[in-house]
Structure formats: structure tokens, C-alpha cells
Design a protein that fits this description.
heterodimer; A: 117 residues; mainly beta; 7-stranded mixed beta sheet; B: 0% helix; globular
């Protein structure tokens, strides 16, 4: 059974940092692109970043470029999102998702991030 | 960036009746390989999003056959042949053709 378990969210002050993790199981993690998608309170879905199977390529939405870093450890079947210089507008539930044929076919349960003073 | 636009944003439906959601992309999502990188998701209350339709018209595993997707390069439709109470949620289209990946605004389906 494919499982994605996100963790690491919490309350952080503006300008602070946080590292999200996503533990994958039930599939060959190293064979798939992976992504982070977020959802601000009461809002729609926003793709944040993705990373190639071997970690050699990654992409970001403009609003997080230079502040967020996506990475992965295929030996540990884990996906990460390092978030620096956090802003109030980064407040959201962050989901990790597996990418396949241009779609996100499996999603984690989400981890909430609140940026507030 | 490819802009995704959905309509309607709110959809009240009587159980047993059909429902339809439209999605338009600002650029064609039809690739030279014949694939249309348009996907549909539903987010039920309190849950993570789940994939309904990928590559424009392919139902994801376990999705009931009352759900169907269609469309060409820029115009796409999600149809539910007979709405059930469990279909309540927010439906999103998403283009997976190029980065940045983009979603539609979402359509909230509610039961009358």
C-alpha cells in the first residue's frame, strides 16, 4: 500500500525556518518525481515545488524561489522541504504527493504550518 | 504560466441528477504524444485531495464509473452521471504539462 506521511509542521514566527519531511512507503520511491502542494486556510490548492527521481532537477513556484529548498534521500525513502525566511502568507497545510504521468496520484495527509508573531 | 479557469465555482445538485464542471487552460494541454496532461481531483471535507481523472479522461484506480472526463486542447469537462451524497467536496482541475504546475480555483459541489 502506498503511504506518504508528512511531518514537521508547526507554529513559527515571520522570518523563521522550518523543515518538513515526508516518509514514503509501499512503492519504489527512487522511481518517481515528488512534489509539495500547499493549501492556505479556506483557499485552493497551490503547487509549491517538485524534484526529479534522482534529485538532479527541481522546480519552484515563484513565490518561494530563493526561500524554499526541496530535497530527497532515496536511501531513506524521504522527501523534504526546507523553508527559510517564512512569511505570514506561507501559512498553509503542506501536502507531499507522488507524481506520475503529469498527475499527483497519491497524497499525504498534510502537515500544517502557521507563520505568525 | 498556464492559467486554469473553472466554472461554476459552486454547484448545488440533487442526488441522482447529473453534474458537470468545466475547466479551461490558457494554453493547449495536448502533447505531440497524444496525451492531454489535464487531471481532476476531489477534496472531500477534512481530507487530502484525491485523484479522480488523469490524462484528460482516464479514471484513477477505484474511481466509480459515474465519473468521466473529456476534452480537447484547452477545454475540458468533468461529468458525474448521477450524483451521490458522498460526492460532496471541492473539485479541482490541474495541468501537469509544464512547471509551474497550476490548479483551477475549485468547484464546490453541494447536495440540494
Amino acid at each position: 500500500e502506498v503511504q506518504l506521511v508528512a511531518s514537521g509542521g508547526g507554529l513559527v514566527q515571520p522570518g523563521g525556518s522550518l523543515r518538513l519531511s515526508c516518509a514514503a512507503s509501499g512503492f519504489a520511491f527512487s522511481n518517481y518525481w515528488m512534489s509539495w502542494v500547499r493549501q492556505a486556510p479556506g483557499k485552493g490548492l497551490e503547487w509549491v515545488a517538485n524534484i526529479r527521481e534522482d534529485g538532479s532537477e527541481n522546480w519552484y513556484v515563484d513565490s518561494v524561489k530563493g526561500r524554499f529548498t526541496i530535497s530527497r534521500d532515496n536511501a531513506e525513502n524521504s522527501l523534504y522541504l526546507r523553508m527559510n525566511t517564512l512569511k505570514v502568507e506561507d501559512t498553509a497545510v503542506y501536502y507531499c504527493a507522488r507524481a506520475f504521468q503529469g498527475a499527483f496520484d497519491y497524497w499525504g495527509q498534510g502537515t500544517p504550518v502557521t507563520v505568525s508573531s | 504560466d498556464i492559467v486554469m479557469t473553472q466554472s461554476p465555482l459552486s454547484l448545488p445538485v440533487t442526488p441522482g441528477e447529473p453534474a458537470s464542471i468545466s475547466c479551461w487552460s490558457s494554453q493547449s494541454l495536448l502533447q505531440s504524444n497524444g496525451y492531454r496532461y489535464l487531471n481532476w481531483y476531489v477534496q472531500k471535507p477534512g481530507q487530502s485531495p484525491q485523484l479522480l481523472i488523469h490524462l484528460g479522461s482516464n479514471r484513477a484506480s477505484g474511481v466509480p464509473d459515474r465519473f468521466s472526463g473529456s476534452g480537447s486542447g484547452t477545454d475540458f469537462t468533468l461529468k458525474i452521471s448521477r450524483v451521490e451524497a458522498e460526492d460532496v467536496g471541492v473539485y479541482y482541475c490541474m495541468q501537469g504539462q509544464q512547471n509551474p504546475i497550476t490548479f483551477g480555483q475549485g468547484t464546490r459541489l453541494e447536495i440540494k
